[in-house]
Write a structure and sequence with these properties.
single chain, 175 residues, mainly beta, four-stranded antiparallel β-sheet, 1 helix, globular
């Protein structure tokens, strides 16, 4: 498995971010990267999203498997940072009203550019967790899988495009 979670609000990549939570990882490392490899642990923090922001009900996300690592790469241009992410990641997404939950295997890998403006551009292979408030997918929380890109505007709007893209609604799984 490979991994990545894109924050529910689409905040920059401070480790693995659940596209849509806006919370960057801050927890203690759950894994150790090989010494001298350039890879460092990039743990995801638990997150909460209010009712109506992604699903009709409030949700909570928490990694139950988190072996994601990050490597900073040379910047492609001035004002741009570039990082690669990979590793196993399973996030339990829970309906806070009913307790129903879904374990999302979001073990994709990504190359992420973050611009000084706050915009981001993700090149992804495999599944990631994407929370959408505004963008080309309907409001919701999704496992997006395939080979694709995700553009995130400075305001958090997300555009998912690519030759191979599948979406699975997490909200539908835990409604």
């Amino acid at each position: 498995m490979r991994s990545i979670v894109l924050g529910a609000l689409g905040t920059a990549c401070a480790a693995v971010v659940t596209l849509g939570t806006g919370h960057a990882a801050a927890a203690a490392p759950a894994t150790t990267a090989p010494q001298g490899s350039g890879w460092e642990p990039a743990p995801s923090a638990p997150w909460d999203v209010a009712a109506g922001e992604r699903c009709a009900f409030a949700i909570h996300g928490e990694p139950i498997v988190d072996e994601v690592v990050r490597r900073e790469l040379p910047p492609p241009a001035e004002g741009v940072t570039r990082s690669a992410y990979k590793g196993d990641l399973v996030v339990r997404v829970t309906n806070k009203e009913t307790g129903a939950h879904y374990d999302a295997d979001v073990s994709g890998s990504a190359l992420v550019d973050v611009y000084a403006s706050g915009a981001q551009f993700w090149r992804v292979a495999g599944p990631v967790l994407v929370g959408v408030g505004d963008g080309n997918l309907a409001r919701g929380m999704y496992v997006v899988d395939g080979v694709y890109t995700i553009g995130i505007s400075p305001t958090g709007s997300k555009t998912v495009t690519g030759p191979v893209v599948a979406t699975d609604s997490i909200c539908a799984h835990i409604d």
